[in-house]
Automatic annotation (TrEMBL):
SMART domains: LH2. It comes from Manihot esculenta (Cassava). It is found in: Cytoplasm. The lineage of its organism: Eukaryota, Viridiplantae, Streptophyta, Embryophyta, Tracheophyta. Residues 291-315 are annotated as: Disordered. It holds the Pfam family Lipoxygenase. One of its GO terms (molecular function) is iron ion binding. The keyword Lipid metabolism applies. Residues 229-923 form the Lipoxygenase domain. PROSITE patterns: LIPOXYGENASE_1 (PS00711), LIPOXYGENASE_2 (PS00081), LIPOXYGENASE_3 (PS51393), PLAT (PS50095). Belongs to the lipoxygenase family. This is Lipoxygenase. Its EC number is 1.13.11.-. Its main location: cytoplasm. GO terms for cellular component: cytoplasm.
Length: 923
């Protein structure tokens, strides 16, 4: 200890927060004050390190080895400061994640790298101190160290391989704050973690989780920082320049086409959804800009198309789309997604063959035809004999799969018909799904009757609805309409304004027919909803009596089938708004700007970046895959949903009314009128529909996220001035708004980031959208939509009236007419295959309350401890959700044939489970 005091100065030993002390003592000082310890490293006596080992702050401590301490502990108390700094060894343990499967090219490269490693083309590491050398004014650096045993461990089959390296470090080196890695091999490798051993503080951790490219492709050294979080103003002198350089490199220069190995994050508009070079029918308008406002997406820099210089050329599957290298799916995730895509190819292939061989059977003729998809599989439905199958020019791999595993050609039974095959036909189930199905975020309290449109009456006709009191008065349990409104008993699914501007164009498409619908629900004394009227609107035509039509609950066989067709059109409207607006726009597209800006403006050392990191995982990759295959011209969404080529224009029209400040759960519930502010309630609001499963469970998760975020923010920002003066934080938010959401940047509703409460609100909203909101809207797609009549994404016929030529065929065989209005066999099976993939959890999924390296993702022990508290709260919420699902008084989630509401239950097994809340928008 005497030696340490002479080298370091006794006052610093007494004051430094590097000394491992109990966490309760740490909180006697403000966190802002504590972060000023980053000046000199301090020696920690062994007896104290042992006592407080478990509670110690896991930040890096002194660059003095135990050998040096022991060697000097027995020396004279009059030891003087040595003229030359002593040197000691530090050991690095480097964890590299292996690939499970390699192609021939990768295997050859791996073995070549093993050979090259022996002759000096190694992986080279270098430590960088938090301190600056007083003579050179540059950060202190260790001598370079080479990763050992790379060639010997080439054939190790484990998921993770551990390598070592040894550094020789001066005793006055200080605290290691960064490490550089230079890969002189041919092949990239995935660096998961570096841990330094030999410092008196104990291990120093560098969570990397990144691909390190070959020096021949990317000459610059990779920089990784320790797990110790630093606000920009508190960055140690030795790390300031590195912090700025790393951010500059990640931003790029906005020029050129991106390579798949790049780590460049930049913005662009959606100008790559169409492919005008294929023909005029594949042109699509640019989304983003004053003409059609939209959020920005990740820039790829591809060349323009030949026929339209404003459209970016496309990369068609199976070629990969660019996203920054670390955003690409990891192997297990890619395997899951690829398996789903394979099933989609097979499911699309078989109906295509059927349509070719037996053209008269393009439609489902009976409901039993749909059942066969689950019971017997498509091959039996298609009726192909073995010899016909074998004679078809199919890839060998497809033939092999068909022979060995017909399961790939058979659909799992969707949950909606697993407990009650006819549940989808019932009105109570139709209504229940509005609050506990896959799209529980559209229903609103009806405040005025009849409802009115906000569209321009000069273009779209009278704003008044065709609904009248006579349509609903008999379904209000004895109330007048005014009484029902005043007592908050009337609710509406209103898709009138979303669809009407597009109906002329949609209905002109081949095999597409749609209305703009409004559905009125009554809240019964049992707490369930009952549909009592459906309004079907078409664009106004002079002297036409068909522009608006009201359908009410049936009184006979004919009106029963008309009512079923009307509900199918409502479900089709609902499916479109769910997919294009609530799911894609509000969770996928609207999140991307915040993610791009976070990487560009906040260092990996920034505590807010560390908080958001797990909630940004895979989102850029899944959004790029969507642009390639799902939302593109003639993609799955256009093929399978009623609006066809106008799908993304409907999404963009909704963006004009999108408001970030209304995306948090409490604000959204109040905006829709399904809750009112009430400070006496646990979450500060009262639900109008008390048994509203999505809202009930969602509020538990929202509150847990908010509490976790608040404790985190308070730890680093004890006062609001620190938020205002945090240049990286302010740059992130400003770029998210002004560049990422540039078309709405002048909106007055954007929160001003100038205090703790606003920062907590912004971060809670982002984490909510990425995790629970996305889960509620995504993982029920196959369980509810896999039985197409329950939620037809596409409808092909309008409802006939008595003077229509189709009316006679409708009356003669209403079941056949109903099925002919549903998607065809080809459309249905293609849609089912895709939503099956989208509803699937991969084996490497991280759920809310989990994260990679949970004990060392942050070097702040208090924050790690707080995170474990958040994890425990997630487990308690799951138990409460399980309890609610068994409560017979909650009729919207419990009862005969009623599905439990598990979409917000935090954990899940891999596969299609209809539950589980991943951290991020990852599928």
């Amino acid at each position: 200890m005497t030696l340490a005091k002479q080298i370091m100065g006794s006052s610093l030993i007494d004051k430094s927060s590097f000394v491992s002390v109990p966490s309760k003592l740490l909180f006697n000082h403000s966190f802002h004050q504590k972060n000023h310890f980053l000046v000199k490293p301090v020696l920690v006596p062994f007896q104290y390190r042992k006592v407080y080992a478990k509670r110690a702050v896991r930040g890096p401590v002194a660059a003095i080895s135990e050998d040096l301490i022991k060697a000097n502990s027995s020396s004279s108390t009059t030891t003087t400061v040595p003229e030359k700094a002593a040197k000691f060894k530090v050991r690095a343990v480097v964890t590299v994640r292996n690939k499970h499967k390699e192609d021939l090219k990768e295997t050859i490269a791996k073995h070549w790298d093993a050979f090259a490693d022996k002759v000096g083309r190694n992986v080279v590491l270098e430590l960088i101190s938090t301190e600056v050398d007083p003579e050179t004014k540059a950060p202190k650096r260790s001598k370079e160290a080479v990763l050992k045993d790379w060639s010997k461990k080439t054939n190790v089959k484990a998921d993770r391989v551990h390598y070592t390296a040894e550094f020789l470090v001066d005793s006055n080196f200080g605290v290691p704050g960064a490490i550089t890695v230079s890969n002189k091999h041919q092949k990239e490798f995935f660096l998961e973690m570096v841990t330094l051993e030999g410092f008196a503080c104990g291990p120093v951790h560098f969570p990397c989780n990144s691909w390190v490219q070959s020096k021949k492709d990317h000459p610059a050294k990779r920089i990784f920082f320790s797990n110790k979080p630093y606000l920009p103003s508190e960055t140690p002198a030795g790390l300031k320049a590195l912090r700025e350089k790393e951010l500059k490199d990640i931003r790029g220069d906005g020029k050129g086409e991106r390579k798949l190995s790049d780590r460049i994050y930049d913005f662009d508009v959606y100008n790559d959804l169409g492919n005008p070079d294929r023909g005029v029918e594949f042109t699509r308008p640019k989304l983003g800009g004053k003409d059609i406002p939209y959020p920005r997406r990740c820039r790829t820099g591809r060349r323009p198309t030949n026929t339209d210089k404003n459209a970016e050329s496309r990369v068609e599957k199976p070629l990969p789309m660019y996203v920054p290298r670390d955003e690409q799916f990891e192997e297990s995730k890619q395997k899951t997604f690829s398996a789903g895509r394979l099933k989609a190819v097979l499911h699309t292939l078989i109906p295509s063959l059927k349509a070719t061989i037996s053209s008269e059977n393009k439609d489902f003729n009976m409901f039993s035809d749909i059942d066969i998809l689950y019971k017997e599989g498509l091959l039996l439905k298609v009726g192909l004999q073995d010899e016909i199958w074998r004679s078809l020019p199919l890839p060998k791999v497809v033939t092999k799969i068909q022979e060995s595993s017909e399961g790939l050609l058979r659909y799992d039974t969707p949950k909606i018909i697993s407990k009650d095959k006819f549940a989808w036909l019932r009105d109570d189930e139709f209504a229940r799904q509005a609050i506990s199905g896959v799209n529980p975020v559209s229903i609103e309290r009806l405040k005025v009757f009849p409802p009115k449109s906000n569209l321009d009456p000069d273009i779209y006709g009278p704003q008044e609805s065709a609904l009248q009191e006579k349509h609903i008065i008999g379904h209000l349990n004895g109330m007048s309409v005014q009484e029902a409104l005043e007592e908050n008993k009337l609710f509406v699914l209103d898709y009138h304004d979303a669809y009407l501007p597009f109906l002329d164009r949609i209905n002109a498409l081949d095999g597409r027919k749609s209305y703009a619908t409004r559905t009125i629900f009554f809240l019964t004394p049992l707490g369930t909803l009952k549909p009592i009227a459906i309004e079907l609107s078409l664009p106004p035509v002079e002297q036409s009596f068909r522009s608006k039509r009201v359908v009410t609950p049936p009184v006979d066989a004919t009106t029963n089938w008309i009512w079923q067709l009307a509900k199918a059109h409502v479900c089709s409207n609902d499916a479109g708004v769910h997919q294009l607006v609530n799911h894609w726009l509000r969770t996928h597209a609207a999140m991307e700007p915040f993610i791009l800006a976070a990487h560009r403006q906040m260092s990996a050392m920034h505590p807010i970046y560390k908080l958001l990191d797990p909630h940004m995982r895979y989102t850029l990759e899944i959004n790029a895959l969507a642009r390639q295959s799902l939302i593109s011209a003639d993609g799955v969404i256009e093929s399978c949903f009623t609006p066809g080529r106008y799908c993304m224009e409907i999404s963009a029209a909704a963006y004009k009314n999108w408001r970030f400040d209304m995306e948090g759960l409490p604000a959204d519930l109040i905006r829709r009128g399904v809750a009112v502010p009430d400070p006496t309630q646990p979450h500060g609001l009262k639900l109008i529909i008390e048994d509203y499963p999505y809202a009930q469970d969602g509020l538990l998760i929202w509150s847990a996220i908010e509490n976790w975020v608040r404790s985190y923010v308070n730890r680093y920002y004890p006062n609001s001035s620190l938020i205002c003066n945090d240049k990286e934080l302010q740059a992130w938010y400003a770029e998210s708004v002004n560049v990422g959401h540039a078309d709405l940047k002048h909106a007055e509703w954007w929160p001003t980031l100038n205090n703790v409460d606003t920062l907590v609100s912004i971060l809670t909203t982002i984490i909510w959208l990425a995790s629970a909101q996305h889960a509620a809207l995504n993982f029920g797609q196959y369980p509810y939509g896999g039985y197409v009549p329950n939620r037809p994404p596409l409808v092909r016929r309008l409802i006939p009236e008595e003077n229509d030529t189709e009316y006679a065929s409708f009356v003669a065989d209403p079941q056949k007419y109903f099925l002919s209005a549903m998607p065809s066999l080809l459309q249905a099976t293609k849609f089912m295959a895709v939503i099956d993939t989208l509803s699937t959890h991969s084996p490497d999924e991280e759920y809310l309350g989990e994260r990679q390296q949970p004990s060392i993702w942050s070097g702040d022990a208090e924050i790690v401890e707080s995170f474990y508290g958040f994890s425990a709260e997630m487990r308690q919420i799951e138990k409460e959700i399980d309890r609610r699902n068994k409560d017979p008084s909650l009729r919207n989630r419990c009862g005969a044939g009623v599905l439990p509401y598990e979409l917000l239950a935090p954990s899940s097994e891999p596969g299609v489970t209809c539950r589980g809340v991943p951290n991020s928008v990852s599928i």
